């Protein structure tokens, strides 16, 4: 059977036409088109604050506070990292999701507006995520947080940054994470190239294609040479040591370009002794949770339940 035969009909609107070419010259128009679909900043449900970031940059955070809790309650927290292939996106793209999730979990959610490639290649986006997480821990008392109940969450490229952030947190040893939730994470820079270790993926008609995937990884890479011990922070699939990472939730669609890299990463986590929950949703392509319906509802239930376990709710 052809790959199209396995795609759930509910996701026909996510099938890519292949007409859009990703390049440095087309990226501004792609950004403008995608960003025009987000809520305008004056309509969002979050509180915006600015903090000192890496490289003397100021870093914008969007804070989602749960409703209806006692003023003296100690809250759990989640650092949320948006997707967009490292080259586009901002917290507003998931505004309603994050606001509703904060209420559902009774947690403070902090979404980080990290710098984008190619203007800011590796490690700038990851450094911004670490700065946001450090701010959250260092200000936990003022924010009313329980610093033992802090998790991280990311979608797609945000999942890659979350996975790399968990590795960085482990290696630096300053903080402890309660868990990480990775939604269809973008983990391996080789996927979609001739060097891909996953040659059986035949998803070239679906919502995220090999060509833009390679373009985005090249934007993130910049001048990085892939020849030092940071390679697992750039491309988490290449991290040799996955021991002592926090409990991990991974979800991916069976028709996602990232299926094999995500399942492989999950199995390596399990072999390293990391508590793992893995979901593969049948017939679902990349970004499946953006289409209302049975699979999106199920994935929402799954991730909420996993986050409640992480945060001991």
TrEMBL record:
Keyword terms of this UniProt record: Hydrolase
Keyword Secreted included in the entry's annotation: no
Record keyword Kinase present: no
Organism superkingdom: Bacteria
Record-annotated Alpha/beta hydrolase fold-3 domain positions: 79-288
Entry's Gene Ontology molecular function annotations: hydrolase activity
Designated name of the protein: Alpha/beta hydrolase
Organism listed in the record: Pseudomonas canavaninivorans
